[in-house]
Amino acid sequence: MQVQDKDTTIETNADSATEAAEVTADSTPSLEEVIRQAELKAEEHHDAWLRAKAETENVRRRAQEDIAKASKFAVERFAGELLAVKDSLEAALAAETPSVESMRSGTELTLKQLVSAFEKSRLTEVNPVGEKFDPHFHQAISMIDAEQEPNTVVNVLQKGYLLADRVLRPALVIVAKAKG
């Protein structure tokens, strides 16, 4: 009986090995299936890459359009403020018989409108009389003997202007010379 049991055991083990091989073959995908899945995954990644590339291109294009619009219309607010100044000047010129007093008051009103437009646009005046000379904000035209300390602004020939803390035009100044 032992021999027969041995043969039966061998046959049973062989059947189990065949079944295990079949199960392993069924659970392990074939080489063609692995390649097909890899190709699908590669196609998905390529599609995602193309979409990301297109989105990046759209963002870049929109940013360029925004920059172009910003530079084109950057002066829009300031120009709108200057329209009131122009209207005032035209009204002064249209007056039939203006008196000196009405011209003066009209000019003062127009100057106030212009100063207001400058302030709204962060355009500030640099009038450095009595201040120390600063080459970042002033341009010295000449030096003269004066009672003030050396390198002090004595006279302003032309006011300077700053646009949001950036020098738009330096003030043209005459500076006190060192004595001796």
The N- to C-terminal Cα distance equals 135 Å
Indicate the percent of residues in helices: 55-70%
Rg (CA only): 43 Å
Tally the beta strands. Answer: 6
Major beta-sheet overview:
3 strands, antiparallel
Write the H/E string, N to C. HHHHEEEEEE
Strand content: 15-25%
Q: What topology, given as strand order, has the largest sheet?
A: 1-4-5
Structural class: alpha+beta
Task: Calculate the mean pLDDT score and round it.
Answer: 86
Number of domains: 2
Poorly predicted spans: none
Contiguous helical run count: 4
User: Can you tell me the overall shape?
Assistant: elongated
Features:
180 residues; alpha+beta; Nucleotide Exchange Factor Grpe, Chain A, domain 2; 2 domains; 3-stranded mixed beta sheet; 4 helices; 6 strands; 60% helix; elongated
Describe this structure in words.
- With 180 residues, the protein is of the alpha+beta class.
- It folds into two domains: 2-72; 122-180, Roll (Nucleotide Exchange Factor Grpe, Chain A, domain 2), CATH 2.30.22.10.
- Helix content is 60%, strand content 17%.
- The strands form two sheets. The chain has a three-stranded antiparallel sheet with strand order 1-4-5.
- α3 packs antiparallel against α4.
- The longest helix has 42 residues, at 31-72.
- The protein is elongated and about 120 Å long.
- The N and C termini lie far apart (135 Å).
Short description:
The protein is an alpha+beta fold. 60% of the residues lie in helices and 17% in strands.
